[in-house]
Specification:
This protein has 219 residues and is α/β, with parallel strands linked by helices. It contains eight helices and eight strands, in the order βαβαβαβαββαβαβαα. Helix 2 packs parallel to helix 3. The structure holds D-xylitol-5-phosphate and zinc ion. The site of zinc ion has 6 residues, from strand 2.
Length: 219
């Protein structure tokens, strides 16, 4: 059965020299899916990974691989990521030239379409696209790097989004990304989040199983 609340470690904070082991260890610790941060050095000031990393991750886990594209012209790379093993792809509302078409493309290639939204973008901008998406990835830091501080105004944004989704009568997951940890996970759940992306809170912790268990306990 599909769990109500899901924990998604962002592999950006993993030890890349032992990526396979890190993925297996977090899977064993009880996570629900993996979050893969793709950055192009244009849309965000950092460069990370491409489809070959998704392919590598696909070899060591059967869990969903949710891919967060922080890149310009994401439509050019959707097919390659899905062929490599991405099961969900979120694209940023700030950069898509034709968002409905891009979401449709993700769906047609067989993955879950999602919309990512930056801290400075008003949440109401999502309204026209709600029926085309299966999840919204709300950024609670400015995208580009792991380990940043959670932006407090995000709670209000999530509450507004939960209201917009309710009004739309669509079934849409709310995912949160950036600065998520034991100190705010409960408050985020209360605001309406059901998918929790966490990079440093998991991979910088001493005992992954203990951390995941504590996160679940807080929910
Ligand atoms: C930021 C990325 C996040 C990041 C989260 O641009 O999209 O997924 O890895 O890392 P933490 O949880 O450390 O803020
Ligand atoms: Zn991310």
């Amino acid at each position: 059965m599909d769990k109500k609340y899901k924990i998604a470690p962002s592999i950006l904070s993993a030890d890349f020299s032992r990526l396979g082991e890190e993925i297996k260890a977090t899977e064993k610790a009880g996570v629900d899916l993996f979050h893969i941060d793709v950055m192009d050095g244009h849309f965000v000031p950092n460069i990370t990974m491409g489809p070959i990393m998704v392919e590598a991750a696909r070899k060591v886990t059967k869990l969903p691989l949710d891919t967060h594209l922080m890149i310009e012209n994401p439509e050019k790379y959707i097919e390659a990521f899905i062929k490599a093993g991405s099961t969900g792809i979120s694209v940023h509302i700030e950069t898509c030239k034709n968002l409905p078409e891009t979401l449709h493309m993700i769906h047609n290639f067989g993955a879950k379409p999602g919309i990512a939204i930056n801290p400075d973008t008003p949440i109401e901008k999502l309204t026209p696209f709600l029926e085309k998406t299966q999840y919204i990835l709300v950024m609670s830091v400015h995208p580009g790097f792991g380990g940043q501080k959670f932006i407090e105004s995000t709670y209000e944004k999530i509450k507004k989004l939960a209201h917009l989704i309710k009004k739309s009568k669509q079934k849409i997951d709310i995912a949160i990304d950036g600065g998520v940890g034991l100190d705010n996970i409960k408050k985020l759940k209360d605001a309406g989040v059901n998918i929790f992306v966490a990079g440093s809170a998991i991979f910088k912790s001493r005992d992954y199983a203990e951390t995941i268990q504590k996160m679940r306990g807080a929910l």
